[in-house]
Amino acid sequence: MRKRIRDQTQHAQLLLETLAYLEERGATPARSKTIKTRYERVADPHAVDPLTTLKSIQNHLSDLYMLGFLQRTDRNRGKSGGRYYEYSLDLDPKSSGTSETRSKRNATADTSPRRQTKRTLSLCW
To answer: What is the pTM assigned to this prediction?
Structure first.
């Protein structure tokens, strides 16, 4: 799994990191506008110029969905609310490359899927 993440573009990796952050805080599924706001903050410490348009973020999210990294939920709120997608991570923690022995050594560590996913994403940088 780590190799598949590393094979993605820098912006795709930042979007995955952004979604891991949102997942960790229980803020998913999230709309692309919410993801874009957090993504800009995630890109800053990496000294990366973030993508500037919502459409470019949506294109990357769509690509990550097609590659199996994300779940996408279609929402339709009618005329007043419009139609939009919400995204969340769709990474299997068992295939994420997290070592079982590391978890056994540190029995008090948080081994939730969200924590393991964030750990995997941080290992890719």
So the answer is: 0.71
